[in-house]
């Protein structure tokens, strides 16, 4: 059995970028609480600026670039999908509802039949 490949951060620069991004996130939260005596808008601006810097740093790393490429590939694939028309979607919904009703009736009938066989015929219990 083959072991799946595990992708890791390959270079020291990428590791540093990810570490800086993590420190910026922690710094954003710490700054928000250290600025507790300031107006709320100052605290929120500081939080958002530091978080934006963390996101920007992350997206310059190899992991961030791979995430962006994955998102772009996903958008391309979604554009290839042939979506059903409104009429087709409505018809399929009705088919599903009809199947659910038929299955519910079948299961109810099966349950009642087994109940009758077990309790009335085999055990002889009368309700």
TrEMBL record:
Q: What does the organism's lineage look like at the top? A: Bacteria, Pseudomonadati, Pseudomonadota, Betaproteobacteria, Burkholderiales
Cellular compartments annotated: Membrane
Answer whether the UniProt record assigns the keyword Metal-binding to this protein. no
Question: Which keywords does this Swiss-Prot/TrEMBL entry list?
Answer: Cell membrane, Membrane, Protein transport, Translocation, Transmembrane, Transmembrane helix, Transport
Q: Which Pfam families match?
A: SecE
Q: How does it assemble?
A: Component of the Sec protein translocase complex. Heterotrimer consisting of SecY, SecE and SecG subunits. The heterotrimers can form oligomers, although 1 heterotrimer is thought to be able to translocate proteins. Interacts with the ribosome. Interacts with SecDF, and other proteins may be involved. Interacts with SecA.
Organism annotation: Piscinibacter gummiphilus
The residues that cross the membrane are 18-35, 41-60, 92-110
What is the recorded function of this protein according to its Swiss-Prot or TrEMBL entry?
Essential subunit of the Sec protein translocation channel SecYEG. Clamps together the 2 halves of SecY. May contact the channel plug during translocation.
Into which family does the record put it? Belongs to the SecE/SEC61-gamma family.
Instruction: Please give the name of this protein.
Output: Protein translocase subunit SecE
């Amino acid at each position: 059995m083959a072991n799946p490949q595990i992708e890791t951060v390959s270079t020291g620069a990428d590791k540093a970028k990810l570490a800086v991004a993590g420190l910026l996130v922690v710094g954003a939260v710490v700054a928000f609480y250290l600025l507790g005596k300031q107006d709320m808008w100052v605290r929120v601006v500081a939080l958002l600026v530091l978080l934006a810097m963390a996101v920007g740093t992350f997206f310059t790393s190899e992991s961030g670039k791979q995430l962006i490429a994955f998102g772009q590939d996903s958008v391309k694939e979604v554009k290839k999908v042939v979506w059903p028309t409104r009429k087709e979607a409505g018809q399929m919904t009705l088919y599903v509802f009809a199947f659910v009703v038929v299955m519910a009736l079948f299961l109810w009938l099966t349950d009642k039949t087994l109940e009758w066989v077990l309790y009335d015929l085999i055990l002889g219990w009368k309700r």
